[in-house]
Structures are given as C-alpha cells and as structure tokens.
From TrEMBL:
<feature type="binding site">
    <location>
        <position position="59"/>
    </location>
    <ligand>
        <name>Mg(2+)</name>
    </ligand>
</feature>
<feature type="binding site">
    <location>
        <position position="245"/>
    </location>
    <ligand>
        <name>Mg(2+)</name>
    </ligand>
</feature>
<dbReference type="GO" id="GO:0046872">
    <property type="term" value="F:metal ion binding"/>
</dbReference>
<dbReference type="InterPro" id="IPR036705">
    <property type="entry name" value="Ribosyl_crysJ1_sf"/>
</dbReference>
<dbReference type="InterPro" id="IPR050792">
    <property type="entry name" value="ADP-ribosylglycohydrolase"/>
</dbReference>
<keyword id="KW-0479">Metal-binding</keyword>
<dbReference type="GO" id="GO:0047407">
    <property type="term" value="F:ADP-ribosyl-[dinitrogen reductase] hydrolase activity"/>
</dbReference>
<keyword id="KW-0460">Magnesium</keyword>
<dbReference type="InterPro" id="IPR005502">
    <property type="entry name" value="Ribosyl_crysJ1"/>
</dbReference>
<keyword id="KW-0326">Glycosidase</keyword>
<feature type="binding site">
    <location>
        <position position="58"/>
    </location>
    <ligand>
        <name>Mg(2+)</name>
    </ligand>
</feature>
<feature type="binding site">
    <location>
        <position position="60"/>
    </location>
    <ligand>
        <name>Mg(2+)</name>
    </ligand>
</feature>
<dbReference type="Pfam" id="PF03747">
    <property type="entry name" value="ADP_ribosyl_GH"/>
</dbReference>
<feature type="binding site">
    <location>
        <position position="242"/>
    </location>
    <ligand>
        <name>Mg(2+)</name>
    </ligand>
</feature>
<dbReference type="InterPro" id="IPR013479">
    <property type="entry name" value="ADP-ribosyl_diN_reduct_hydro"/>
</dbReference>
<protein>
    <submittedName>
        <fullName>ADP-ribosyl-(Dinitrogen reductase) hydrolase</fullName>
        <ecNumber>3.2.2.24</ecNumber>
    </submittedName>
</protein>
<feature type="binding site">
    <location>
        <position position="244"/>
    </location>
    <ligand>
        <name>Mg(2+)</name>
    </ligand>
</feature>
Length: 294
C-alpha cells in the first residue's frame, strides 16, 4: 500500500481515538454547562459522566479496535466473526455501551442471528462510530467499502438513516485517505445533502445528540468550519452532547486531512498507551492485508 495512505490512515485512527478521549469529558453536557465548568475545554482531562482517567477512550474506540482486530486476526472480513468480537467486547464489561448495541448483541447471543432486523427506531450513531477501520481496510475500493461498511453496521443497526450516514461518511473519509482534498470531500457531502435534505447542516443550530441525523450534521459542520486539527477538535468537544462520538468522527476526518504532524503532541502523549500501540499496529496491518470478504 502507498505510504501516504498508511500515514493518513494512522492519523485518522489516532485522531478518532483522541476525539473520543477528549470528547468523553463533555458528553451529555450542554454548551452552557461546559462554559460554566471549563470556560473552554482545551486539553484531555478525563472525568465526564464516565469518570475516566485522562486519555482513556470509550465504546467508540473500543468497538472500532474490536472490528479492526477481527479483520487482522482472521485476515478477512466476516460479519459473523465481527459479531463474535463485539460480543466478546460486551462480555468484558466495557465502560459504556449503547442500548441498541446491547440489545442487538444479546439477540445475537440468544438466536445466533448476526444481522439485526430492520428497525425504524435504530437511528442512533452506534454503527457510524465504527466506520474508520473499514475505510482503512478497503484501501480506496468504494464497492468493497460500501459492502463491508453496511455489513458491520447491520450487526447492530439496520436502519435507512444510519445506512445513509454510514455510506456518506465512509465515502468522504475515503476521499481524504486516498489523497483527495477537503473541497472534493465537500462536493461528495453536498451531493449527498441535495439528495437527502434531512442531513443538511447549512443552518446548523448546535444539534449534538446521538440521533444519526444530528450526529452527521455536527460532524460535517465542525469539520468543514475548521481549519486545523486542534481548533476543530476544541470547537467540536465544547459543543457537548454526544461529544465523544462526534469528536471521534470529526477527529478521523481531521487526521486524514491535516495528518499526524498537526495533532498536538500533548494529546498523542495523553492517549492511553495500549490504545495508541494497538491503533498503530492494527492500522498498518489493515493497510497491508489483501481484502477478503466472506
Ligand atoms: Mg462513547
């Protein structure tokens, strides 16, 4: 694999984990509450409703690592094996887990069904938050990317709005990972919004919930408004709401755009050492593995 793709992939996955660790502090807080408590939060301090140590990540990064690990260990993508890794992760008593994810994985445990039934109400961001490793593994092949992005998504979330956001986010990140510009990314996003107006963020009013439409608007608003990794992440996290997931997904786009040198060294050093090591190792492996889907 081209070295520029590998470099951008490392920055994207690390940016993702850093966004998660940074954003966990302000998760479920309003913008006003954050202002009162922190003025403006500018460093990774942990805490939050999960009482994390600084640099610890949450379910977003842990599930993305589990997904990457399932591909690397088995040298292939298999929906069932990914579901097995998610289940193993759930059984390890993670610090946080979304309701739809818990419900789907319990269902898998009971009925051995590793694809969730279509559900109009499963419109949370829990599938979208696991998109980064599949973008890396697909290595620019958009057909492969769409197939595995949806397969991994449907293990827990089988919903039209979730699918739409997953595909567009993955295609956008893919443009950046393969050397495309922010302008090219914006063209992809604009075309998508023209076809699916519900996702429009041109009049963004601070929506920040875990509802996939709100999450998508927040991600794209902060990513396209920002001009650097650091400032974009600070603005994103200080907007509160589902700030770990939104922060993580913005962090991946920013990592792919501004690359590793733009990520503050302090933030990289704060990130949980094991998570850092795993992301480095898994990303290189995902980049070097030939795609194999079964
Ligand atoms: Mg989380």
């Amino acid at each position: 694999m081209e070295s520029s793709f590998i470099k951008k992939s490392i920055a994207a996955f690390l940016g993702f984990a850093i966004g998660d660790a940074f954003g966990a502090t302000t998760e479920f807080m309003t913008k006003k509450e954050i202002e009162v408590k922190y003025g403006k939060l500018k460093s990774i301090v942990g805490g939050g409703w999960l009482h994390l140590k600084p640099g610890k990540v949450t379910d977003d990064t842990e599930m993305s690592i589990a997904l990457a690990r399932s591909i690397v260990d088995n040298k292939s993508f298999s929906q069932k094996i990914v579901a097995d890794y998610f289940l193993k992760w759930m059984q390890s008593k993670p610090v946080d887990i979304g309701n739809t994810i818990r419900f789907s994985l319990i269902n898998y445990m009971k009925k051995s069904k590793y694809e969730a039934d279509y559900d109009e109400s499963s419109a949370g961001n829990g599938a979208l938050m696991r998109s980064v490793p599949v973008c890396i593994y697909a290595k620019g092949d958009v057909d492969v990317l769409k197939e595995i992005a949806l397969k991994q998504a449907h293990i827990t979330h089988n919903n039209k709005l979730s699918d739409l956001a997953v595909i567009n986010y993955c295609e956008t990140l893919n443009i950046l990972l393969t050397g495309g510009s922010k302008i090219q990314a914006l063209e992809k996003v604009s075309k998508f919004i023209n076809e699916h107006k519900i996702f429009s963020f041109s009049r963004y009013k601070g929506e920040n919930s875990g509802y996939i439409v709100d999450t998508y608007k927040a991600i794209m608003h902060f990513y396209f408004e920002g001009v650097s990794f650091k400032d974009t992440m600070i603005e994103t996290v200080n907007n509160g709401g589902d700030s770990d997931t939104i922060g993580a997904l913005v962090g991946a786009l920013c990592g792919a755009t501004y690359e590793l040198n733009s990520i503050p060294k302090k933030w990289i050093n704060k990130l949980d050492k094991n998570v850092y090591k795993e992301i480095m190792e898994l990303t290189v492996s995902l980049c070097n593995l030939r795609v194999n889907i079964f």
